[in-house]
Design brief:
The protein is α/β, with parallel strands linked by helices. The protein is built from 12 helices and 7 strands. Helix 5 links the parallel strand 3 and strand 4.
Length: 348
């Protein structure tokens, strides 16, 4: 099926479910933008990054991917037909949403299991010649048992409000504290379970971050907010555990920094870096080893408006241990319909 027709069918929902499209770009992506070529390759018709004509070596390594939100009621024959259409249209790999922060769609021993959809679809996808990478939510956790037993596991904003009680923007933004050891071990367990699934090619970490401090301007009217700077209700990382850890190191409670009660450029920078390191260390020390130990590839979702975060940490660069074998970045267009050129600081 031609790409244009497949794009139309996906947009109209003919294939069932919701499908997001993305290119898996080489790390040395050229700077050129070519809307028409991207529309042909990425299918969904949103303006995004594209590439110059590729040489033989580059063409051999470029892959087309799709995110898939799952429909548990889809029949075996429907899955087979869907995968055959994707493969015939040039899709190389799929990222099904296997854990959505509330339910697991694989045979987990520590998460609430809705159904083992991964177990049913994996052999079908593999038979169609598709790689399967498990897409999992990392920080948001809406599991009632965790909420009730471990409210101290959740992230806290600069007003002292817990994400479990007063999440930012939407109800599912109940983010865990990425620096807390118990949280790191709990998220690591999910990665270990997925990495143990035979024939699964990799693990895709979504929401591997703090809640958004500043949303794209196009979303301000939707949430009736103005975010010309970082305001305390959306400034996260202030759990009792993290405040204590920072205070031990710098002899200052960072809540005074977050509330603007203390002005010290060096301490502000130190607190900013401290919160970035919560996430970087979670991935480097817990999640990457869990996946690597089973020979799985790792990847994570990067949105263009978070480029500063990744530029500051060096995450996704081969110069850091964040994803040492990871040479591709997934990007989503921003709300204006355009995808900015990736900063070279995190595309090397």
């Amino acid at each position: 099926m031609p790409f244009r027709l497949l794009a139309w069918r996906i947009a109209r929902g003919v294939l069932g479910g919701t499908i997001f499209s993305s290119l898996c770009y080489p790390a040395n992506i050229p700077d050129a933008m070519n809307r028409r070529k991207f529309l042909k390759t990425a299918m969904l018709g949103t303006a995004a990054l594209s590439v110059k004509p590729l040489g033989a070596g580059e063409a051999a390594t470029r892959k087309n991917w799709v995110w898939i939100t799952l429909s548990p009621d889809r029949s075996i024959d429907e899955w087979k037909g869907m995968f055959a259409t994707m493969r015939a249209s040039g899709i190389s790999a799929i990222l099904p949403e296997i854990y959505d922060g509330r339910n697991a769609y694989f045979a987990s021993q520590h998460l609430p299991v809705k159904t083992d959809l991964l177990g049913r679809m994996l052999p079908l996808a593999r038979a169609a010649g598709l790689e399967v990478h498990a897409w999992m939510w990392s920080m948001p956790c809406l599991i009632p048992e965790i909420i009730q037993k471990h409210p101290d596991w959740y992230n806290v904003n600069a007003k002292g409000e817990s994400a479990v009680d007063k999440p930012a923007y939407v109800d599912y933004y109940k983010f865990l504290d990425p620096g807390r050891p118990e949280v790191r071990e709990w998220v690591q367990t999910t990665v270990k379970e997925l990495a143990s699934v035979p024939d699964l090619a990799g693990v895709h970490l979504d929401y591997i971050r703090h809640p958004d401090a500043i949303l794209p301007k196009g979303l301000w009217s939707k949430y009736k907010i103005v975010q010309d700077k970082v305001y305390p209700p959306y400034d996260y990382g202030y759990s009792a555990y993290e405040r204590e850890q920072f205070k031990k190191k710098f002899n200052v409670d960072p809540i005074h920094i977050g509330r603007g009660e203390m002005k010290d450029a060096q301490l502000e920078e130190a607190w900013f870096q401290f919160r970035l390191d919560m996430v970087v260390d979670l991935v480097n020390d817990y999640l990457v080893p869990a996946a690597r130990g089973k020979g799985k590839r790792r990847c994570f979702l990067v949105r263009p408006w978070r480029a500063r975060w990744f530029a500051r940490t060096g995450a996704a660069s081969n110069s850091t241990p964040f994803c040492p074998c990871f040479t591709t970045i997934f990007t989503r267009p921003d709300r204006s319909g355009c995808a900015p050129k990736p900063p070279k600081a995190w595309l090397r």
